């Protein structure tokens, strides 16, 4: 898989599908890598040129000194699509990736065709939770919190029925560098777009999980009220709805992006 040195960071990314198809960039959640999108890859590449990347401090991307900001994470996306000579792309982000996508929709709207915001919120508080989590992983490593965090990614009944998937997610999260995870925690902590999201004018789909604890449906419905013309889909899932409801999630994204 290729790397791109962009500004101050070396980003790991991959592209799949027909380069002549419409571009679709996927932005991962806190504590995951680009592998989180594997359940949708076969379906999405039937229609799109799919760009996945590891957010700085995650996966195989470089861990630069923190703290990070959502502005910095958004600038990484713009630098990556510039590197790939892509003028305009669809954009789908989940959780922290959704926050990055909202920032981009506000500051770089001409580079985005359609927007998909999944299991995310304009503000995820309280801030002291993020400060505490960042300190904990810097002290003890990400593996120390992995099982507890993953328990919020899938509903309990689903997790019990899919132990292999749970183990894979715990391994993905545990492999995240502690300094990178902590630096991104602080980016989420310092983000508050509640007063700005009404300025998003792009065609937008909001995907929520009915059992999502970190970003519950109320957060998604706030975005729905603020973003004019937005569409809403609620899946029977927890925080990683693309993992728990892989086919339904993929169908929702494809149907929205193809419905010009």
Summarize the structure.
The protein is of the alpha/beta class. It has helices at 38-44, 70-83, 96-107, 127-140, 143-150, 156-161, 163-174, 178-189, 217-226, 241-244, 246-258; strands at residues 3-6, 9-16, 23-27, 49-53, 89-94, 112-118, 204-209, 231-235.
Query: Which fold name is given in CATH as the topology?
Result: Rossmann fold
CATH superfamily caption: Alpha/Beta hydrolase fold, catalytic domain
Q: Could you tell me how far the N terminus lies from the C terminus, measured between alpha carbons in angstroms?
A: 32 Å
Structural class: alpha/beta
The CATH level-2 architecture is identified as 3-Layer(aba) Sandwich
Q: Average pLDDT across residues?
A: 97
Q: What is the 3D shape?
A: globular
Main beta sheet, described? 8 strands, mixed
**Lateral strand order in the biggest sheet:** 1-2-4-3-5-6-7-8
Radius of gyration over C-alpha positions, nearest whole angstrom: 17 Å
Low-confidence residue ranges? none
- Number of helical segments with 4 or more residues: 11
* CATH structural class: Alpha Beta
Can you characterise this structure?
This protein has 260 residues and is α/β, with parallel strands linked by helices. It contains 11 helices and 8 strands. It has helices spanning 38-44, 70-83, 96-107, 127-140, 143-150, 156-161, 163-174, 178-189, 217-226, 241-244, 246-258, and strands at 3-6, 9-16, 23-27, 49-53, 89-94, 112-118, 204-209, 231-235. It has an 8-stranded mixed β-sheet, sandwiched between helices. Helix 1 (38-44) links the parallel strand 3 (23-27) and strand 4. The chain is globular and about 45 Å long. The two termini are 32 Å apart. The mean pLDDT is 97.
């Amino acid at each position: 898989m290729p790397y791109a040195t962009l500004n101050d960071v070396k980003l790991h990314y991959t592209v799949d599908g027909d380069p002549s198809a419409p571009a679709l960039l996927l932005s991962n959640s806190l504590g995951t890598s680009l592998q989180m999108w594997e359940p949708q890859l076969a379906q999405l590449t039937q229609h799109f040129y799919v760009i996945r990347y590891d957010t700085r401090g995650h996966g195989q991307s470089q861990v630069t000194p923190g703290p990070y900001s959502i502005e910095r994470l958004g600038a990484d996306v713009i630098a990556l699509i510039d590197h790939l000579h892509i003028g305009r792309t669809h954009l789908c982000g989940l959780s922290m990736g959704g926050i990055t996508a909202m920032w981009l929709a506000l500051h770089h709207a001409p580079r985005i065709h359609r927007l998909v915001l999944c299991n995310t919120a304009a503000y995820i508080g309280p801030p002291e939770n993020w400060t505490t989590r960042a300190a904990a992983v810097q002290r003890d490593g990400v593996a120390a919190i992995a099982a507890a965090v993953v328990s919020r990614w899938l509903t309990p009944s689903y997790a019990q029925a899919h132990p292999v998937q749970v183990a894979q997610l715990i391994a993905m999260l545990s492999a995240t560098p502690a300094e990178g995870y902590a630096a991104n925690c602080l980016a989420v902590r310092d983000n508050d777009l509640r007063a700005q999201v009404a300025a998003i004018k792009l065609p937008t789909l909001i995907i929520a999980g009915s059992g999502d604890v970190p970003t519950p449906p109320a957060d998604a419905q706030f975005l729905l009220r603020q973003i004019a013309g937005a569409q809403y889909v609620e899946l029977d899932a927890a925080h990683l709805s693309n993992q728990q409801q892989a086919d339904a999630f993929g169908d929702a994204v494809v149907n929205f992006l193809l419905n010009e």
